Structure formats: structure tokens, C-alpha cells
Amino acid sequence: QQQVKQSPQSLIVQKGGISIINCAYENTAFDYFPWYQQFPGKGPALLIAIRPDVSEKKEGRFTISFNKSAKQFSLHIMDSQPGDSATYFCAAQGGSEKLVFGKGTKLTVNP
Amino acid sequence: ETGVTQTPRHLVMGMTNKKSLKCEQHLGHNAMYWYKQSAKKPLELMFVYNFKEQTENNSVPSRFSPECPNSSHLFLHLHTLQPEDSALYLCASSHRDRSSYNEQFFGPGTRLTVL
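^ inputs. structure came back:
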């Protein structure tokens, strides 16, 4: 119930393409869904987050799509760039409880 | 220094050694966290400190001992570790408020290798 399942484990995209990473959860108490981005040698950094009262949130080239009934959410990276190459983690939190992270997706954007 | 800093960045230790990891946050936050990051596993929360008091111990073996002397500093004392404890240890901090969701700011981590 506390798990967040993330897929794919790795993703290779050409420059200018769309990167899509998916996450699913079981715990209906989760009501905050952030995405973190981690570059090699760095700690994760918050990229974008959404609450279930909206179905989509967009910040620049990054969009979260949220499907409450399916208990799924996804990250879309439009016009992917080589600088987007990193590991992406989805996470979920309910109230002030701890963040539960997915296993991560290693994204490689080829020039 | 800004953000969350961790020292050392790399540590190699034998199974009988005692060492400590240090974390310092310069963000004025009131909560600090230790996470373990292993390959192909989710980030595992180990400990949470809120206003210097430990509020969560996620069933972590006693060979890991946290210490939080003030809201800016967090230590992880290590003794008699096992090779499977080799991982990246991440420290994070946040402004923890029950009425809001708290963005966690992570340090760069300490890459620990246990021989």
C-alpha cells in the first residue's frame, strides 16, 4: 500500500522528442505527488509537483498528468534536451507523512 | 555555504571501523532526514528529526546511529557495518509544517563503500 511503482527503469529519447515516465500508487491517502530530478554526483531536486485537485500541471517543458481514478500520474518532458539526461523519481505523500519514492527512471537524451 | 552540505563526499571503511557522516543545512529548516540510496531501489527513509527530536526510525539496524545536536546539523554514526550497507547516503531538510507539504532539499550525498 505504501509503494509507488515507476516505469520504465530506463528511457532513451532523441533530442526534440517527448519523454514519458509513469507512476502508479495504491494508497488513496496520498495527496501530494512530486517529481524529483537527480544528476550524477548530486542529490535529488524537486522538479514539479501536483495535488489531485487538478488533472494536469505544466511548468515550461515539464508536465504532470494525473489520473485520480486510475491512481496513476506521469511526467512528460516535451522537446527533450541532452541536458535533461538524469534520473527522475516520482514520489507520493499523504498529509505530513513521509515521502514514498519510486525506484527511478534513468533518462538519456541523445543529441 | 548554501543549501544542504554533506561531508565527506566519499568514504571507504572496513567492517570494524567507526566513522561519522555529517550534514549541515543553511536554509533555516526545522526538519532533517537521512536517506539510503541503493542501485535499483527506491530511496529509503532512515531517520527523521523534527526540531532536533527524532520522530521516525524506519526500522534501521542499530549499527546506524543518528545524532541531531541542533536544527542545522545532523550526523550519522556508523559502526560494524556490512558490505550490503554500501550505498549513497543522502541528507535532506525541510520546513516541516503539518498544514502544508514540505519540499525536501537534498544534499549531494556521501558515497559509502564498506569492504
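The radius of gyration of chain A is 13 Å. DSSP finds no helices and eleven strands in chain A.
thumbs up if we can close this ticket
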